[in-house]
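Checklist before submission:
- one chain only
- standard amino acids only
- sequence pasted in full

Submission:
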Amino acid sequence: MNTSWVALLLLSSALSSVAFQQITPTVDEIGRRHAQALGGIEKIHALHSVVIRGIYHEPGEIPGDASTLQPDAYQAFMRPYYEVIGDPTEEHPDIREGFDGSAWEYYGDPGILVRTVGAAAAATRHASEFLQDSIVDFRAKGTKIEYQGMERIRGRKAYKLGVTLVDGFEKLVFIDTENFLIAAERKSAPIHAFGQAVTTETRFSDYHPEAGVMMYRRALEVQIASGKVLNEFRRIVVEVNTLKDSSIFSPRLYPRTLLQQFLEQLYMERTDAVSVSYSYRVFRQAHPELNTQRGVEFVGYQMVKMRDFGGAIELLRANAADYARSASAQYSLGRAYQAAGDRASARKSFQKALQLDPAFQNATEALNDLH
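Returned file contents:
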């Protein structure tokens, strides 16, 4: 073969190799350029806290110009791992949740605190990532990243990265190939306590600098299978480095009534069905004047969220017996059976609920779901 042709082929091969490397950088290079696109690692590390006030809406789009609307959602982060959802200055919140080293949820009605585990805790701790960014400092955090090719997000090319967090949770993160900002995240997780895992994609847009660091202003979550919009969050106000005290990230110590103390005690005993049943019975015998039905149904639901089915079923079975004329009590028991996989018992409970209240729509829908 002519030596000039050999040289030309070798040069062509070398140029192709260089071009390929330029098109597909390593995950470390993507991480470096992502941090640079945000504003640089020094500016990122200079952020100690971020407070976000915005508008949360589900389902569908927020009507009109969001900038003219009053913020109704609060979220705050502080290094190294703190997060809270719900304005800590609000005296009587409907719900507040956060992460102060472990995940927690506070419910104003019935006024109890639950420390969560399982899928509920995972969702909270994953959301507590500072700047909600898994790429920055990923090696230091023990996060594993694998390049999985390219995909289009809203018509733009993006690097597709398989991300495995230190607790084993897996998701996909898409980095725009032009601006190196996060375009979307894709994950599979249960949407509610009794549902199967659903694959969703959260799309980030409208980036603006805050203290020299680019932050998204809009996050839109859609269900992959149907394209249905599940929720949207628009950030209206962002405050940087204004927090000094980490106490706002822990639940407030509200005074507890006797009933509230009892409900929290049942929740703490949830892994031991015998203890749950005994505590319920002695409390009912000692305080027959207190109506425990609604609170017990709530705690039973929380137990099911934690997948402590034995304790939940024992508790809700006793509740249904003590409030034999309550369709709600039967329905709550049926949900626990259904979540535990006992479809026959669930069907009987839903049927009993409808016998007590034929217009009970939730029981009708639950029964239909079993067919």
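Reviewer check: Residues 258-370 form a domain with the Serine Threonine Protein Phosphatase 5, Tetratricopeptide repeat fold (CATH 1.25.40.10).
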